[in-house]
Design brief:
479 residues; 2 domains; single chain; elongated; four-stranded antiparallel sheet; alpha+beta; five-stranded antiparallel sheet; Immunoglobulin-like; 19% strand; 17 helices
Length: 479
């Protein structure tokens, strides 16, 4: 029996199926929570924001304590004055931050994300404002479900005004690290910012408003690369937030008077509060997930429920995978912290930090750059002396006036012509012209050509000061 031939496509069927490449997610209404870890989070919020908003207003030696003056190419950090030549310190600082992140992540998971990351901090602040205007989780859900009216407009509008104010103040403070903030504040009163100030205040403010007000968990889940590669730094002895499945399952609701063992239940009463307080909307009972930022809100709310049920705390807790599986005590957990990868990270971080501090401590109070004057070649002057002309840039990195004396060395009889003494104002960089001469008999003995020499720039502000810098150069003897 022959099979029926395939049917021709029906051109009359105009049904269109749309396949979306982006799946819209439901809005997360995180419930407010109190507890030990919530207190720690808010302590970090206060600390980081007092530091961020307060530092630009501090004065030091008659100027802003922390100022990155891009126009003058000077970076002031309290007693330190750094120049573009000191860019190496920024590179080392970034390496220190990276090593610290690796170390803390290997030991205790996403501590940075849960407590000190700007995205977490500002989301916490914005959520607090939201709760003040619109109420807690249930009230916000009801408000969003009702049609627009006077109450919703006033509550939502007040929240938006507060968010915009915080965002603009955040952008203003950010620019205050690059433009003296007192001058910036005076310009703000008349809205007379320069174009770059306008751009960065609005750009940084908009970024804060969008990320903390609307994107929130999506920044952590989709935009932040740390969430994707953090697992490479985890192992089974990394301290993470975990749900004790052995103790909690099978879960189920019950009365406070019911004995869970008699009812064949675990400690989890399936209240779902751990999901409701999670800022990223995950269920920690499903195990370790990359969306978990380690904020420990689920620990606080679960411990509160355990207290009310008269069960032991710790159904959700900071623990390691090995600790959960092997029922390790706290002393055993601490012992496992000292594993090879942690020791390597710690040793590397300690060595880099020590080198960084020592380098800053031994940093020279001056900098010198030497450039030969190409317009004036070697020449013979009075009494047969050979003269070369150089241009030196002397940088006084101190915040007080300093006097420097320039001398030359490297060839017998070589000397700087005239009184090469210069008084530089605080943090001043000055180009000076220096003539170096060589006696005829020394020139004849050395022979024609280019000969190595070096300049010695010594600070003589105070008696007995031995601070000096040597810079190499060449002295040309004509034929």
């Amino acid at each position: 029996m022959n099979a029926a031939p395939p049917k021709a496509p029906d051109d009359s069927d105009t049904t269109v199926q749309v396949v979306s490449l982006y799946q819209s997610e439901k809005k997360i209404y995180a419930r407010s929570v109190t507890g030990v870890f919530a207190t720690w989070r808010w302590a970090l919020v206060w600390f980081t924001q007092l530091l961020y908003y307060g530092l630009p207003w501090l004065s030091w030696n008659g100027r802003q304590a922390v100022l990155f003056d891009l126009g003058a190419r000077r970076f002031y950090i309290f007693e330190l004055v750094l120049y573009p030549q000191d860019f190496i310190y920024l590179a080392v600082l970034l390496i220190i931050c990276a090593y610290a992140l690796f170390l803390f992540t290997a030991v205790a998971g996403r501590l940075w994300c849960g407590y000190a990351c700007p995205q977490t901090v500002y989301t916490e602040i914005f959520m607090w404002v939201e709760q003040k205007f619109e109420g807690d989780r249930i009230a916000r859900m009801k408000l969003d479900a009702q049609p627009w009216g006077t109450e919703r407009i006033l509550r939502s509008g007040g929240k938006q005004v507060a968010w915009v104010a915080i965002s603009l103040w955040t952008g203003f403070t950010f620019v205050g690290y690059f433009t003296p903030i007192r001058e910036l504040a005076a310009a703000a009163l008349t809205l007379s910012f320069g174009p770059w100030e306008w751009f960065w205040v609005l750009f940084y403010g908009l970024a804060t408003y969008g990320n903390a007000g609307f994107l929130r968990e999506q920044v952590c889940k989709y935009m932040c690369p740390y969430a994707r590669f953090q697992s490479a730094m985890f192992d089974r002895d990394t301290l993470i937030i975990g749900y004790d499945t052995e103790r909690g399952e099978p879960r189920g609701s019950r009365s406070k008077k019911v004995d869970p063992k008699t009812a064949g239940l675990g400690s989890c009463i399936d209240c779902t509060l751990c999901v409701q307080v999670c800022p990223t909307g995950i269920d920690i009972r499903k195990g370790l997930q990359y969306e978990c930022i380690g904020c420990a809100a689920c620990i606080d709310v679960c411990d509160d429920i355990m207290d009310k049920m008269n069960y032991p705390r710790g159904l959700i807790r900071y623990d390691t995978e090995n600790g959960m599986a092997e029922h390790l005590g706290r002393s055993a957990l601490l012992h496992r912290v000292l594993r090879p990868r942690v020791l390597v990270y710690t040793a590397g971080l300690a060595l880099i930090c020590i080198a960084f501090v020592v380098s800053l401590w031994l940093r020279s109070p001056m900098r010198v750059d030497v450039v030969r004057d190409r317009a004036t070649l070697a020449r013979i002057v009075d009494d047969g002396y050979i003269e070369n002309i150089y241009r030196l840039q002397i940088m006084n990195v101190a915040e007080s006036a300093q006097r420097f004396v320039v001398t030359a060395d490297g060839l017998p009889g070589i000397a700087v012509a005239g009184a090469a003494s210069y008084l530089l104002e605080p943090t001043e960089a000055r180009w000076v012209t220096v003539a170096v001469r060589l006696a005829p008999e020394a020139a004849q003995q050395a022979g024609s050509g280019a000969h190595p020499m070096h300049f010695i720039v010594q600070r003589v502000t105070e008696p007995g000061d031995t601070a000096q810098v040597q810079e190499k150069s060449t002295f040309v003897i004509p034929r």
